[in-house]
Amino acid sequence: xxxxxxxxxxxxxxxxxxxxxxxxxxxxxxxxxxxxxxxxxxxxxxxxxxxxxxxxxxxxxxxxxxxxxxxxxxxxxxxxxxxxxxxxxxxxxxxxxxxxxxxxxxxxxxxxxxxxxxxxxxxxxxxxxxxxxxxxxxxxxxxxxxxxxxxxxxxxxxxxxxx
Length: 163
Description:
Blueprint: H1 5-8, H2 16-22, H3 24-40, H4 56-78, H5 92-114, H6 117-131, H7 137-158
């Protein structure tokens, strides 16, 4: 008597390993949100009274990350997604892309320290667009320039955030 392929691989419907695997992302999100809130506590509060402290925005973001991660975890527990056979499996190229995106973001942080925000941001967008598969001149030139201009206009000019 032969064993069905999905049972042999441990991807049975409702299998514990598959469900546990799907909870790794929400768990990482909860941990990240807690780290953001903990780091926000180290921000100095000015001696003057204001309606919002400098901690307000990071705490709100950390709380939202936690809330959304808990929501995803509940969704996965109550109604798990399709079995691993029904979705694309991880590929080496996909893992390389994710690592390349993370390296590009880290390099952006270093690059921004040495050169101006607009130049570093255009370089980041070009790198991300290229890593994610776009090859046309509109995607590699026009999109990064427009996105950088919008970000610079919003934060640098309108909100007067020092970039």
